[in-house]
Amino acid sequence: MTSVNELSWYWITLAATVPPILAVLVAYLFWRTGQSTFGNIVGTALLFASALGLILREYVDLDRLTNECLDAGTTCFPQPSAFTRFAVYAFIALVQVFALFWLGLFVEERVRRRSYAREWQ
Questions:
Q1: What is this structure's pTM?
Q2: Residue at 19 is within a domain
């Protein structure tokens, strides 16, 4: 259960670890066959979809908590705000996309170099 006055560190840790691992594994399947652009697109879609899912999970959780406060006859305002909580997941996903594209450049270079003879490298 999430508190109104703290971040969901379990879910933030999950967002920072699991989606990039899955995105790299899925993108690598395309990168090694020479389809680096498609691999980057699929990996990016996976990262942004997971961020959107976690943002929606946070929204539902905050909505439930604020409704519990209202049912109890009090008002409670989440700290940090809902926007800040959502921005955390979005920022994590954006950094992961940058890292995915950066890693994709190195994989693409290795795949490209493999097609040349050793003495031409």
A1: 0.86
A2: yes
